[in-house]
Amino acid sequence: MFYFCGMKFRTEISINPCDFKISHTCKIAMQGSCFAENIASKFINAGFTVDLNPFGIAYNPLSLSQNLNRLLDNKPFAADELFKDNDIYHSFSHHSRFSGTNPDEVLAKINSRMEQSATFLQTANLLVITFGTAYVYRLQSTGATVSNCHKLPAKFFTYKRLTIDEIVDEWNGLIALLQTFNPSLRILFTVSPVRHLKDGVHENQLSKSILLLSVNELIGNHSNCSYFPAYEIVLDDLRDYRFLTKICSILLRKRLIMFGKNSQRLGLTAKPQRKRMSLRKSIKR
What we know:
By secondary structure, the protein is an alpha/beta fold. The chain has 8 helices and 12 strands. It starts with a strand and ends with a helix. The chain has 2 domains: 22-238, 3-Layer(aba) Sandwich (Rossmann fold); 245-284, no CATH class.
């Protein structure tokens, strides 16, 4: 930690240690947003055993719960759960990485991946869940929450922000099922620090607040659940520009230049600038 005149150059995040340790002998399942995918890639590169997003990227707590419940049931997807758009077959429960032109191949890929992940989850030591947003899209025709809209027109969906009670009620039941399915499984929640600005700046803040409060209630309800403050570390520590000295100096220089321009316009720096120019000319001569 660096100090200057008593000033701390970082916003320190205090992390309470969990009562379990992650080692290379652990089997880790990770599901959630694109932030989860980036973190998982670091674990995989470091030699950890990781099962990542068997349905592809999912951002909201309800879709993640539906996906995990499907894994626990180990119920294969059927042809009537796919839809066709522009000659491509998709699943509303899956990322577009599972889509394709042949419905049989799409189903084979979906069900093979799901069976593999269900088997992994039975003996996993840790399940890492990353919530990205509290906003969900629901099909107008059925009311079902979708993981991916696959760029269909907005008229096919309703857009809603989940409440804390909705998230907590959904996950209380799921966590109980996971404990029965794998009694030794620990669950680690995180909230993605990636901003969903398409929802709106203020709406994004509301969404993240709902997710944080929901997770806080869940870890209070279940002894096998913990929280890792990735959201706080990235936003309050790593984005503290006092710590990024190069960026800080660039921003400071730009602001000084802007201040100089404004001062010139107001006539505050005219005399010092003339003196500086005359000094430069005398040096050149």
